[in-house]
Design goal:
Number of strands: 18
Strand order of the largest sheet: 3-4-5-2-6-7-1-8
Shape: elongated
Number of helices: 20
Oligomer: single chain
Helix content: 25-40%
């Protein structure tokens, strides 16, 4: 594909010859680009197709704080607005809330007011948070909040999403979808997300684009319409070393930028004195944070594999709801004693069951199954940043037709397991389960309720962590269960431990498969050497 130096240089010249800085000691000085900013402008605006149209449509740039993201974003919105030849060019500067969006808007206003050329062609309307093109008032830049009402009728030519790691709520994620897809009728659109690192399980949009950037840079996937760059330290880098600070901060003077390294040193000394470098690593080394009490080391989890999974024997999804498993895999479990944990969650979200089989070496095999509504797969992928459709295509999740999970599918899988294995008990989380468990009791199935609390779940939760640490939890790398494991956070009360369930409205993390396994493991630990007579549904704990 051709690269236009003319277009690339035009974008860079706009910044350095037209724009002036709007804040701090650089106010009024020409906007001299840092190398990372120059590279981004050249790649975004210099890559053209054979017809001379810009190729890049989606941009993700991740840098630490104090890298000049706000002013860079302000300059881009003015560049697109001024240089566009189309009528009705709508440019939106969006942030998680109005206050954040106004940071970019105010910087853009000051840039216009400092430039005779821009004042001649653009008009600042501070009362409406807009900058309009004098020759075409229907062409404008507007500052908007992602937590507000964004009309479905927006037709953006360009969207700048500031600090995407803060876009966490369902409303913000829905508005991202509206803004990033709203200009689909335009010949050329551009969506640019500029952010600092967030918390992995709390920032689904930013994490999804972070992972896409990583995969593109590693050659795992290819998308010619995507440009992504991540500037930050690696986990193994020493946070106290100036070399790490230089590596992570592209706007330092050592990297051709404007920022004095003394500013980073001050931040390090301050955070180190408090005894916690978590915020320093995230904001000034651009290292993504996991929940503060992450329970499982995924490297250790990945060691805990069994031969049936490592050999690639996971089932592929068939057309019917109850899928036959490969013969080689079934031979490992058929007629073996097991306990089944059930976590139904919400009928519109993710539900799971886990067959837990004691092994001769003191470990346990786990055979999990997951369900989610077929009609909401795309919405869930956008919200959580996880490849649900791919997992469904590969047989790791079963899709229930429509917009809710059909619990008859879950019951059918349980009945299938009872017929295939030596099921001792079916262990239900009492929440939202009696619609299924009571009829199954009446039909003669060995169902039991497991109360959700420290008294009941501490021992099996600790046991699960022990099994992972000793590589005797044989899950085989099931990707959905692995994701659940990565989301686990422990909470303690005295010496008791539980895994805390994430807020489904605010958090993309899910632990349903692990919750189901813990329910089953609780009863397995209690009942392995005992005989139980069932007279109906009982509650234990």
């Amino acid at each position: 594909m051709p690269f236009s130096e003319q277009h690339a240089h035009a974008a860079c010249n706009f910044f350095e010859l037209v724009l002036k800085h709007s804040a701090d000691e650089w106010h009024g000085q020409p906007f001299l680009l840092c190398p990372w900013q120059e590279e981004a402008l050249c790649q975004i605006f210099g890559q053209l197709d054979e017809a001379g149209n810009r190729i890049i449509e989606m941009v993700y740039i991740e840098t630490p704080k104090k890298s000049g993201k706000t002013e860079f974003a302000a300059g881009i919105v003015l560049l697109v607005l001024l240089m566009s030849n189309t009528q009705g060019c709508q440019v939106y500067g969006a942030a998680s809330a109005t206050r954040q969006a106004m940071n970019v808007y105010r910087a853009a206003c000051k840039m216009v007011e400092q430039s005779p050329l821009l004042k001649k062609r653009l008009r600042v309307l501070r009362g409406t948070n807009r900058i309009v093109k004098r020759s075409d008032p229907d062409s404008f830049y507007a500052a908007i909040a992602a937590d507000g009402d964004v009309g479905d009728g927006v037709n953006p030519a360009c969207v700048i999403a500031d600090e995407l790691h803060r876009w966490k709520t369902r409303k913000q994620i829905e508005n991202w979808d509206v803004l990033s897809n709203g200009g689909i009728t335009r010949q050329q659109t551009l969506t640019i997300a500029i952010t600092t690192a967030g918390v992995q399980n709390e920032s689904p949009l930013a994490w999804r684009l972070h992972e896409k950037t990583r995969k593109v840079s590693e050659g795992i996937v290819s998308d010619p319409k995507f440009y992504g760059r991540i500037y930050g330290a690696a986990r193994e880098d020493d946070p106290a070393a100036p070399e790490t600070w230089i590596k992570a901060n592209p706007s330092l003077k050592q990297n051709g930028g404007f920022l004095d390294i003394a500013k980073i040193r001050e931040q390090y000394v301050s955070h180190a004195a408090e005894g916690d470098l978590t915020s320093f690593k995230r904001y000034f080394l651009n290292m993504w944070d996991q929940k503060e009490s992450r329970a499982i080391d995924l490297a250790q989890w990945d060691i805990s594999r069994s031969e049936w999974q490592a050999a690639g024997l996971l089932p592929k999804a068939p057309e019917d709801a109850i899928r036959p498993l490969p013969h080689e895999l079934l031979r490992r479990f058929i007629e073996r004693r097991c306990w089944v944990g059930v976590d139904l969650s919400m009928s519109t979200d993710l539900s799971a069951i886990a067959f837990v089989f004691p092994c001769n070496d003191g470990g346990y095999d786990i055979l999990p199954f997951f369900w989610t509504p077929a009609a909401k797969v795309k919405q869930r992928q956008l919200r959580d940043g996880m490849p649900y459709q791919q997992w469904a295509d590969e047989g790791f999740i079963e899709l229930s037709p429509g917009s809710v999970i059909d619990y008859r599918d879950v019951r059918a899988r349980l009945e299938w397991g009872v017929g295939m294995f030596d099921v001792q008990e079916i262990c239900f989380d009492p929440w939202n389960s009696r619609e299924m468990s009571v009829p199954m009791i009446e039909a003669g199935f060995p169902c039991i309720e497991v109360r959700q609390g420290f008294q009941t779940l501490s021992e099996p939760s600790k046991k699960l962590l022990e099994l992972v640490a000793s590589a005797r939890l044989y899950h085989g790398g099931h990707p959905v269960l692995r994701w659940n494991a990565s989301c686990l956070n422990a909470k303690w009360a005295n010496d008791n431990l539980m895994f805390s369930k994430p807020d489904r409205e605010k958090n993309s993390a899910r632990i349903d498969g692990i919750s189901a396994a813990v329910n089953a493991l609780h009863r397995a630990l209690v009942m392995e050497s005992k005989t139980v007579e069932y007279t109906g549904l009982r509650s234990v704990g």
